[in-house]
């Protein structure tokens, strides 16, 4: 296999499903799922996913450039690696998803949906991840990096969303996120149906959803804007130099979730509201029949505002600054 992305977008079975070079062996497991095993013994096992949403193409392209280097034997591979292009059908059609948002379905939530392509895909990805990590030792270092781009613009161009975690975050993982160019980190306080929540909860992986820029179709991305993330990935996959951390990411925590329950839902934000837009206490954020969503803290920031989500799904997250941590880092916010 020479080009994993090209093969995936073709929708055809590969001519060869396994191979090796001087650096690694590889095995095609299913559409958009590739496992690579280094020749040398390793204590690390990483899952890197992209294309969970089919209109978020830049992370797929930068990841594919790195994977092609590995498949050609041009670079050594340090960890055991599972590469996932999450929703190939949606990628082929430049659509966020075919029928349902796959990134709300993990942790068995796919069972709550009708039989749709995304529900079957979420189940298959859970299987692949479980098999991959069960094949290694119990003391392996496990990371899951889920690469995305956002529909909306943002005051923080690159940021990470951290799933609920009951144990301290590994310092080397947080340092890597800063080296990847993330300007902010958002910490969840409750479980959800995302891919990173699944890997963190069920396999104790250090997991992050990386929002690396703006969602654009294949061929429209300026990949130079993703250079820090690409270089940081090369560092953990190949052993290349890790980019210098020029500033620690600002930290936020989720204060409340806006959920669309009925067809009467109204989000009181314009279509061009940027991620991390601030709202003062008392602001009416949304209404849904008799239910009202207001800013409860002195100041809250919104991410992922979207009034068009399916009923029962998140229409936005409200955040507050993690002031104690930011002040410890010398933040001037």
TrEMBL record:
Transforms N(2)-succinylglutamate into succinate and glutamate. Residues 248-321 form the AstE/AspA barrel-sandwich hybrid domain. Its EC number is 3.5.1.96. It catalyses: N-succinyl-L-glutamate + H2O = L-glutamate + succinate. Residues 45-235 form the Succinylglutamate desuccinylase/Aspartoacylase catalytic domain. This is Succinylglutamate desuccinylase. HAMAP family: Arg_catab_AstE. Pfam families: AstE_AspA_cat (PF24827), AstE_AspA_hybrid (PF04952). Pathway: Amino-acid degradation; L-arginine degradation via AST pathway; L-glutamate and succinate from L-arginine: step 5/5. GO terms for biological process: L-arginine catabolic process to L-glutamate; L-arginine catabolic process to succinate.
């Amino acid at each position: 296999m020479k080009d994993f992305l090209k093969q995936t977008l073709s929708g055809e079975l590969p001519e060869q499903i396994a191979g090796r070079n001087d650096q690694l062996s590889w095995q095609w497991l299913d559409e958009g799922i590739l496992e690579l095993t280094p020749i040398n013994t390793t204590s690390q096992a990483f899952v890197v996913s992209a294309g969970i949403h089919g209109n978020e193409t830049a992370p797929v392209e930068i990841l594919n450039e790195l994977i092609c280097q590995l498949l050609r034997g041009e670079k050594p591979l340090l960890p055991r690696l599972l590469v996932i292009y999450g929703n190939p059908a949606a990628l082929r059609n430049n659509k966020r998803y075919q029928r349902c948002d796959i990134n709300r379905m993990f942790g068995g939530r796919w069972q709550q949906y009708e039989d749709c392509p995304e529900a079957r895909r979420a189940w298959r990805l859970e299987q692949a991840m479980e098999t991959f990590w069960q094949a290694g030792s119990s003391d392996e270092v496990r990371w899951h990096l889920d690469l995305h781009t956002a529909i909306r613009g943002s005051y923080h161009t690159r940021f990470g969303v951290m799933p609920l975690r009951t144990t301290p975050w590994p310092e080397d993982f947080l340092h890597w996120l800063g080296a990847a160019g993330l300007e902010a980190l958002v910490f969840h306080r409750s479980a959800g149906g995302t891919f990173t929540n699944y890997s963190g909860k069920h396999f104790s992986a250090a997991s992050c959803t990386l929002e690396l820029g703006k969602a654009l179709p294949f061929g429209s991305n300026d990949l130079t804007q993703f250079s820090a993330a690409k270089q940081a990935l090369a560092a953990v996959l190949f052993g290349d130099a890790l980019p210098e951390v020029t500033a620690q990411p600002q930290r936020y925590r989720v204060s409340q979730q806006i959920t669309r329950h009925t067809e009467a839902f109204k989000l009181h934000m314009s279509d061009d509201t940027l991620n991390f837009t601030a709202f003062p206490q008392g602001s009416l954020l949304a209404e849904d029949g008799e239910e009202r969503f207001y800013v409860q803290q002195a100041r809250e920031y919104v991410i992922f505002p979207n009034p068009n989500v399916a009923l029962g799904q998140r229409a936005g997250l409200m955040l507050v600054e993690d002031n104690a941590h930011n002040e410890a880092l010398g933040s001037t916010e």
